[in-house]
Every structure is written in C-alpha cells, then in structure tokens.
What does this fold into?
Amino acid sequence: MAGRNFLFVPGPSNVPDRIQRAMMVAMEDHRSARFPELSLACLKGLQRLFRTENGTPMIFPSSGTGCWEAALSNCLSPGDRMLAARFGQFSHLWIDMCQRLGFEVDVLDEEWGAGASPERYRAALAADRGHRIKAVLVCQNETATGVTSDVAAIRAAIDETRHPALLFVDSVSALASIDFRMDEWGVDVCVSGSQKGLMLPAGLGITCVSVRALEAAKSATSRRCYFDYADMAQAAHSGYFPYTPSIPLLHGLRESLAMLFEEGLEQVYARHAFLAGGVRAAVREGWQLELCAREPKWYSDTVSAVMLPAGVDGAKIIGHAFRRYNLALGAGLSKVAGRLFRIGHLGDLNELMLMGAIAGAEMAMLDAGVKVVPGSGVAAASAYWRGQPAPRGLLA
Ligand SMILES: *Cc1c(COP(=O)(O)O)cnc(C)c1O
It folds into this structure.
C-alpha cells in the first residue's frame, strides 16, 4: 500500500525517527563496566519524569500490565482488601486482576464516560474504621473512554479520612503526556509502560515505588519472584538489573527522556492539551457528535472516544478506515464495543498529523452513511489551532 500508515490508536503510539535511530544498536554486555551509564541515565530521567525525590523508578521487561501485578504482589498479602473505581475497560481489568490474584476489592462503579469520584472514595474510606482497606487504586487516564481523573483529589480524600492505605495509580496512558506528580500527590506506586506517552515500542513496564510502598513490601506476604521490588530496586544504585534487560529499548528510553526534557515537561503537557482541544473541536463543533467523556472535567488530553449515532457500527467504520484509508483508529471495548471509535493523540504528534486522522475518520464515517458535514471536522480543528498561540513543541 502506497504512503504511510496513520497510526492513531492510543498506544502503541508513533515512534519518532530520533528514537528509532537510537534503538539501532549492537547488543552489548549488560554486566559490563559501562552498562550503568545507560541504565542509570534511564532511571534518573524517570525519577524526574515521575517528579519524585525519594521514589524508586523501576524498569521491568514487561508491558504495563506486568507493573499492575508487581504493585499487588509486592505490597499486599493474600486476602487483603482494596478500593477501586471502575469506569472503563482498563480500570475493570486491573480490578479483575486483583480478584484473580485472590484480593478483595470494594468496587466503586461509575458510568462509562465519568471518572473516579473523590467523594465516593472519601465515603468508602471513612466507613472503613478498622482500616481493612490496604490499597486505593485509581486509573488516572481511562483509555477506553477518554476520561482523566483527578489523582490529587483522591489523595486528598485519603488524607481527610486519615486512612493509612497505599495509593496505586495507573498512569499508563497519561505519563509523559498529562501532568503526573508522584511526591506532591503522595502516590505510592505509579504504573506505566513504554508504548504510549514515552513514544517507544511496547516491552518496558515502567513503574515508580515510594519509600512507604517499599517498606510495605518487606512485610507483605504475597508470592512474587520475577517482579520482586527488592531485587529490582538494586538497579537504582548499581545500574545492573536482576536479569537481561532489553538493550535497544533502554537506548530508546534514554532518547525519549532526552526529547521530553528538551521540550520541557510543562510544554509537553501543554502540547497534548492543545492538540486534544483541536480533536474535541472537530468532534463536537465540526461533526456535532458527542464524546464518551460526559463532562469537560473528564476530557482526556491523550485519547478521545467519539460516540456514533445509534445504529452505526463502529467496528465497521474502523475496519473501513484501515482498509480504505490506511488509518488505524481505536475500537470501542467491552460495554462500548461498536458504539464508538477512539482517536489516540499522545506522543510524537503535531496538528497536521492529527488532521490526517480527523480527515480519515470523517471520510470513513461518510462512507458508512453517518451524516456529518464533509470537511466540518478539519474546519473546526483548524479554527481551534489557528485561534491561539501554539506551544513551543510545535514550532520549528
Ligand atoms: C495500555 C493500558 C494498559 C495496559 O498496558 P499494556 O502495556 O498493554 O500491558 C493499562 N492501563 C491503561 C490505562 C492503558 O491505557
């Protein structure tokens, strides 16, 4: 097929040429005297990205899901209770993992399209007088619905109730795209991965663990081995991993972090907000369609889930966009299967790349008989982006 594939799923995201080149390396000895130069550069950079002084960043050869399991198996003991909101496929899957590993979960179900309610967390924690809840889970950015929750508000709910539970945050589709603050928000474990905001292939489970969580891991009795924090924490000092790391991915990670810091984290977040604003303008003002995210306070700056009119099959539109226009859009998952498509707007992107996705989605909808005005999405995004100064990362 001529031309390039337009990859607009919310992960894996596009890998910039600079990172591709950085990953083209000969293999080397991961026990050599020089290896810590690479590993420590990655770990120090991650510490800065997570915004933590004393938290320990860790890199597991896994995907983000491995770090979910690491958080549970290191910090908790069999039968422990936790509290988690469920409002999309990813928050659901983490809860499902907790249950399959034998933990008790108090689930706060929300409508898909809403986010985590700090009030409901507060009420559940206040009612837990015996402090049976050992961990509070929250998915910062629900990738299935395009909803971002307020992690600082969940921390405030924990503090107001003086509850000792640990706070675990899934930031897989937020880290390096949407503001995250490990120390300021008192996060005990942050879980992420390489293939979203970090602009790398999948293959690195990236996580950060607070001093308190490392302490809890010492007495927690769940079994773990491959994902053992104590083993992996050594790397932060020595630069040597307990088993063979993916060397190309580490080279890619070092380059990714360099790119993020060159742009400046605040500018990276501003760029994502700016680009997301244009996509939302295309959806709402252009196409006159609804986002799955119910209210502006839930809007995600990394992914937009576009609700389709009743009777239109989202899977058909996505299939057609791929075959006819070489455009990969994200599908509706589980409860919202067939009812929406998702445009990922995270990582290495600019306005004109997104224009391709907006135009392609619009053409695919028109081909499927959806009554959107031809050109309306592009026009609305254009008006949004031209109507205000662009963040630094979009200027040559
Ligand atoms: C992608 C994603 C995951 C799963 O990560 P994998 O790297 O595919 O294991 C978990 N949570 C969220 C919010 C995600 O977007």
In short: Residues 11, 63-65, 90, 139, 141, 143, 170, 172-173, 193, 202 surround pyridoxal-5'-phosphate (CB under 6 Å). Residues 17-262 form a domain with the Aspartate Aminotransferase; domain 2 fold (CATH 3.40.640.10). The first strand starts at residue 6 and ends at 8.
